[in-house]
Amino acid sequence: MTTxxxxxxxxxxxxxxxxxxxxxxxxxxxxLGFIPGITTDYDTxxxxxxxxxxxxxxxxxxSVLHNLVHLAFGAAGVAMAWSAAGARTFLLVxxxxxxxxxxxxxxxxxxxxANFVPLNDADDWLHFVLGLGMIALGVLLxxxxxxxxxx
Length: 151
What we know:
mainly alpha; globular; 3-stranded antiparallel sheet
């Protein structure tokens, strides 16, 4: 089977499948953040503040803004998964954004107004893993076996 006939059938490339999966997971996380019980201390959730006491799965500090960002990020992943180039861009740029968020979370005081998202230690290290994982997927799933010239 050639790449051309594979693409002609509408099959997704591995990088598109990865971006679609990552986007879908972010959408799911965004929705779960609004469900009491899955999000503990739901009644203490703020729009955006370090004082938000709500925690997704009882681990990851969350807020309305945090959940909305997950939903937007997930929607972007699903939309960008329609093309291989878009999927790769989503994974690489999104991974870089998550690494910046990881650094931000490490540098700020979690009890200050700078922590408006909000973030806790669990969020910080999840962002690190997500950033590396997304970049790895974007790079590894789009490696070329041979180098071509003129492109």
